[in-house]
Write a structure and sequence with these properties.
The structure is a homodimer. With about 575 residues, chain A is α/β, with parallel strands linked by helices. Chain A is about 35% helix and about 15% strand.
């Protein structure tokens, strides 16, 4: 199997033995910047303040193994069976490809860390764990209950067998996955991860078994990131990860502030506000956050004008299928945003729950037949827009992934990827907060995505979801084209995610001069409820609630309702708008 | 079935129709204070500043149903089948017994809430949820994935059938509990809680199905608490609950501090420190936290002497089987502590992971044959020491319960019980942090403790655990009596929990005048490792790390190792102490 993603070009280059000094320099430059989408074309660096001298590393003549699913299998085979008993320590370095180590390390972020984060000390009880390796030692140390007192003897779940993912097929073609209490001891059901481990206490970074899968998956999809000391850690989902990240990087006492899209995820605003972290909006367009707008906001920041808020050092962004606008940043947009952040030394929180809900290009008329869907996992990965993580030469990105939108939200399970320093601080906090995700969730997800499906099966599941969401999006767009007054309501067909953002041209409202946008929004919302459709008011998502809205919007989702219901709902929405506008 | 707990006596009184003015007054006084252990003897109130005028409520002549398992069953039957679809809102008021409402409401704690907690606004997106009740409404609102895209079709688990709880019995007498994706729609497997609900997003307070069980269980065990507006909320475990509670009640900017046992759970210290919350120790004895010590610390508080820390308004305590000392506060001790807190207006964080690991009284010689073990759930509940929650007339207790020690830690699941105001602030925080516990953990625990076992089965499981831990404790105590030098090492047989706290008489050390306690502790610890036993250094648990230790201690646990291993380990510990003391 060949290399499976072109998202970050250095992998192509690294996977071929450099044969000349020039090739080596190219490989090295690429590893630093990796701003090219095409494996063959290397763009000139437009990064302002990357420390070349510090980061210039000559790649050796040894070609690393290419990053492929087969390569991961080979690496696992070489490493032998994973031995990770109850509460064992692990980190991504144990599972990463050798390629990572040829790169420079991430920058340090001490100047960003909050007082709270800086003062975290490692868990004192964990200091004792190092003695557990001593042969014959009996521990009267940790207060871990004995597995013999766990009243769950075994679990089993029925899941689809790739590529038969359709819900109706599971009964006939599905597989039963079993997990016993002592599978490791007894060498049953894979013998790597069992209930005696999963139901006991674990490390906050996550169980080694699932951390291995997450680390490998991250490399397959993104690169690995173009610096050496990246790591993953499991999370209780991206909501919790964002709160921890804000507490790590922002400090109320410093007057810290965060930038984000002009319309942003309202829960993110509700997370930041009680921490005393002010949030400011950046202008957006059909591709989401504008890099030039970001540059201008940062270049012209005036603390007095901004009510005493310090120039933001943190950007929170949802690059794919942004909530609420549904906008997706293209590859060049992401490069430009990264460049601006690098120039202004801004740390990036890349929240990507919808990354794998990138859909087929929309062709109009409710159809997506512009290009054929990807047929192989390799083609699927090539179809994905490169992540900010994959461009992150500095280690200034903390990426948040989640199983919520692509497997099940009820797992409360996701992961972050960032530099060792950032991940270490994150884990220190998790140890005294969530203690990491549920072990029950972890073992079920591990059994599903690793043992039952493997990397290839999981990518095929994502390909299945891609078409599911394409179909749903096409259905809502067809309904919009049919039922909405095009002179009043406009939208950009979303390229990813769950949301369609409908703009209503308030300037045409008969009472436009007398009523505010918020008042017209209120009228339409009430009329929608009256007619039997719930769409979310756009004003609820304004980053700066005290600034007048720039337009009149409603957020709709195509994730939940059936296609028939969506059509009915959009028809009702159209009627509500017409009624409000007296048409 | 009769009334099943004497922990709070007013239930007895309330369950009998008051026949005279005197009886009514007794009932009322008891409901206010409930300081008596015996249902027949009402102690004079020793509470200082309870606002009698405000709280004096005359109980009506209608006798409420007694709080029994049968009563809960009757209430459920009357209420009909629980209908709680995806992400539905619920609170304990839906599931409480009518008795609660006859009591006065809890006090308000606005003066304690931190700036962070006070500034939390309700989740704006949840405002939209109220419209979902409108018949025929189609929601394009919440971004909840469709259950049709969940790749888990069913789960099943094998669990013991009460009273056959022994691990070896599960294979033959256990039961298989099944959970399908559409059980509610299809009326299968109980038809109350299925994967379509559990695997989707839920409310941070927890799923209604499990919240109902937790609320009922809390009433069965504790009372209910002696004020009207108590509520429960699920948590991701008590570690996370403690962090949220500290962020709610303490404010770095105010110089807030917390009191706790002189030796306390080290993770609690590591939780508080980064928040800028200083922790101060209260003297303890064989029954744990001393009420007179607490009173003295509070009465003589001097901000200057305490490095600028404000007189603490929060007490963090582990009343049963305290970590690390294993000490358990008796009933009178708890009453005294509550009285002191009430007098000094101190809020109590009652952390009770080991409450149900109360054991049989130790009889010496490795045996616990002083009294026979409880034979019925009613007798079991009567055997438990009353909780601070059950005495909480003011609503000044936030109690933390956890499934970690009594079911499985890997569930990351527990609950809090407190006043409506405190629980509401807690949930507002959880919504932007963990979002509540894993839905997978919730549905498995619900199926286990509600559908498979029910309240009675669960109490019988706890009775089984009581004897398991009694056996383990007796084994380590027998080893101590056999192998430890009694003139050098002393201990109090623990009445609850997982820990045995061994005090070594450092004054007899040959180098007592030359070496500090910490140095001798270090010697013994190193010698223990050398001889093959890990015991945890007592100094790690000091509430005030900058204060010299008051004695030389080691924490050992009897929860994890086998009985043979425990004996070997204690023998090695004894050898290490003798070696250090040159005996």
């Amino acid at each position: 199997m060949a290399k499976i993603s072109a998202a970050t070009p250095y992998r192509i280059l690294l996977s071929r033995p450099p044969t000349s000094h020039l090739t080596r320099r190219l490989a090295s430059a690429s590893a630093r910047h990796s701003f090219s989408t095409s494996p063959r074309r290397l763009q000139p660096s437009n990064v302002g303040n990357v420390g070349l001298a510090e980061k210039d590393t000559i790649i050796g003549d040894q070609a690393p193994e290419p990053l492929t699913i087969e390569g991961i299998k080979a690496r696992r085979a070489k490493a032998g069976k994973l031995v990770a008993p109850t509460a064992s320590y692990s980190d991504s370095d144990m599972f990463k490809s050798p390629q990572s180590y040829d790169k420079p390390k991430a920058r340090r972020w001490d100047h960003l860390l909050s007082q709270e984060s800086l003062s975290r000390e490692p868990c004192v009880l964990k200091q004792a764990a190092k003695y557990l390796k001593k042969p014959g030692l009996i521990s009267l140390g940790g207060g871990l209950p004995s597995a013999s007192n766990f009243p769950i003897d075994s679990l089993s779940m029925r899941v689809p067998t790739p590529p038969h993912f359709a819900e109706a097929e599971v009964a006939s073609t599905g597989q039963d996955v079993r997990i016993g209490k002592y599978d490791v001891r007894d060498g049953r059901n894979g013998g790597v991860y069992d209930l005696a481990i999963a139901l006991n206490y674990g490390q906050s970074v996550g169980a080694a078994q699932l951390l291995r899968w997450v680390t490998e998956h991250t490399e397959l999809v993104h690169g690995p990131p173009p610096y050496a000391d990246w790591r993953c850690a499991l999370t209780v989902g991206s909501t919790g990860a964002l709160e921890q990240a804000l507490r790590m990087l922002c400090d109320r006492a410093r007057g810290d502030a965060v930038l984000t899209e002009e319309y942003t995820f309202s829960t993110a605003l509700e997370t930041a506000a009680p921490l005393g972290v002010r949030v400011f909006g950046v202008p957006t367009d059909g591709e989401g956050l504008r890099a030039d707008g970001l540059d201008e906001v940062l270049a012209t920041w005036d603390e007095k004008e901004r009510g005493g808020a310090r120039r933001p050092r943190v950007l929170y962004t949802v690059p794919s299928g942004q909530n609420p606008t549904g906008a997706t940043q293209g590859a060049q947009r992401r490069r430009d945003i990264y460049e601006v952040c690098s120039r202004h030394d801004v740390f990036i929180l890349e929240d990507e729950p919808y990354y794998f809900l990138q859909m087929q290009p929309y062709g109009g008329g409710g159809a997506s037949n512009v290009v054929p869907p990807p047929e192989t996992p390799e083609a699927f990965l090539r179809s994905l827009i490169p992540s900010l993580l994959s461009m992150d030469t500095d280690g200034r990105v903390l990426r948040m992934d989640s199983f919520s939108k692509v497997v099940v939200p009820g797992s409360r399970l996701g992961w972050i990827t960032a530099s060792e320093q950032v991940v270490e601080r994150y884990i220190r906090h998790a140890e005294v907060a969530s203690q990491g995700p549920s072990g029950i969730s972890q073992v079920l997800l591990y059994k599903l995505v690793d043992e039952a499906w493997g990397h290839e099966g999981y990518l095929r599941w994502l390909m299945h979801l891609r078409l599911e969401y394409t179909r749903r999006r096409d259905a809502i767009l067809a309904a919009c084209e049919r039922y909405l007054p095009r002179d009043l309501v406009s939208w950009v067909p979303p390229a990813a995610g769950m949301f369609l953002w409908l703009q209503v041209d308030h300037t045409q409202h008969p009472q436009a001069s007398a009523k505010s946008i918020l008042e017209i929004e209120d009228d339409i919302f009430a009329s929608c409820i009256d007619k039997g459709v719930l769409a979310i008011r756009g004003s609820w998502f304004r980053a700066e609630q005290d600034v007048a809205p720039s337009g009149l919007f409603f957020r709709t989702t195509f994730a939940a309702a059936s296609e028939d219901d969506m059509a009915r709902a959009i028809e009702r929405f159209g009627a509500a708008v017409r009624e409000s506008f007296g048409r």
